[in-house]
Design goal:
Helix content: 25-40%
Order of helices and strands: HHHHHHHHEEHEEHHEEEHEHEEEEH
Distance between the termini: 185 Å
Strand content: 5-15%
Number of strands: 12
Largest sheet: 8 strands, mixed
Shape: flat
Amino acid sequence: MSAVETNQNQDQDQNNPQTRDFAMALKAFLMKSSTKTNTNLYDHLTQVLLKIMDERPPDVVDVFEDISREVKRAQFVNKQSTLRDMSEDDPAVTLAEQQRSLFIFPEEQDQEDELLEPALPNLTEVGHYLEQIGVGPGRGELLKVYLALRQLVKTNALPRCRFWGKILGMESNYIIAEVEYREGEEEEDERSEEEEEEEEEEQEQSKGEAYGERDEEKEETEGIEPPQSTYKPPPVVPVEAPGTGTNKCVYYVSKEPGFPWTKLPSVTPAQITCARQIRKFFTGRLDAPIMSYPPFPGNEANYLRAQIARISAGTQVSPLGFYQFKEEEGFEEDELPPDSYEVNPEFEGISAAKLSKSLSSWVHHTQHILVQGRCTWVNLTIKAEELNDEEEEEKEEEPEEAEPEIGPPLLTTLSQDAELFHTPPWSLRLSSYLVPENAVAYVRSNLWPGAYAYATGKKFENIYIGWGLKYAGEGYSPPVPPPPQTEYPSGPEITEALDPTVEKEQELKELEEQEAAKEEKDDSDEEEDEDD
């Protein structure tokens, strides 16, 4: 049969009414929409054939099912999915953009690198030793911290800076940098703070005088003198000067490497004293208020600075003989040792085996904080006596002289530390007992969980990574509030009696009348006897 005859037969079939009806019924059936997906087979086959004609894959019969599945998958819209679309402000992307500046350095920086090298320790080497003892933030984060410290040193022209540690928070953490104090750095800030305090005191005094004048005017008019209060507030412990005691170093904090650094304020004795009585987790916001009893004098930035001072005073240790007192500052045996020290150039190092066996091989190189909240004791009775002299001209009894508080001197061995809650203050370890000749000796604080110090040869380092809370034994119970003071002594003279009823009043009246009648009768009888 030729092609012409075949076309003629097809035309005849199309013109056939039965064939035309069957084709229309078939097309209607193929265009019937599905009740589940609201699609029809006719459109689906059309799209499949169009895709086959566009791509023209080999062996279409073998991949026809796959092409059909791809067409269905492209048209699928999941309306029941509970997955949330990724937000545009992804925290990981924001952090990466913030940290991008850490890895960008100008080309002309060779001369500056030579100046910055002595200001920062080699954190790569420190991280290597921290990995051996099983602590530290890790290589990646430590590298970012090092780059962030370089930015801090460069922007503020700091003489010396080191990675103090990391304090964990509920919302975000604190990366802490310890900076050596520079003379004259805090003078302007301190003067401004003192001026503000003086202005506030002057304003309060002026307000008090104004209110006092008004009260005096009222008293003159009314002629009533109110009782004067005999309460005298305790003397305020003065703050230690910058570069000494608890304010020997300056501290900067940042939430993450690449975020801006914030300088913490100087710590006061009142803040340290109150921080010893409370336990609060950090939120990660420096301006967050501290809700506690007793009330803390400041916000979270002040509380963080107080905890840093306490942790440093209790956990900053070094191998015996690494530091020595300066020979220029001579002192006698009865006197306290000076608060300054220097590196011993003749220090030859202590073996790791000896450091891991005896606490006498480690010493404290940070001053102890006294009960006053200072590293050096100050006599508060002198100021109290001066105030009393101004107010009272005569004194009946002289106050007893206060005994100075003396803490443990510098470079005291760890073996002299006292236990707390039957717990030894330190634990000694060796990084590897299989290869002790290449191991690192380290000491861990049990009173401040998260504080570590390692030593190998002539090198050592201290680090703290924790929640910033001291060990409190099995369970912490907050201090009980003091009992309320009695306003007046209770007694029969002051205690009020209940009013009598009407019946009792009548009975008392009758008794009084009877007693009066008896007295009159007795008096009259006596008069008659006298007349007789």
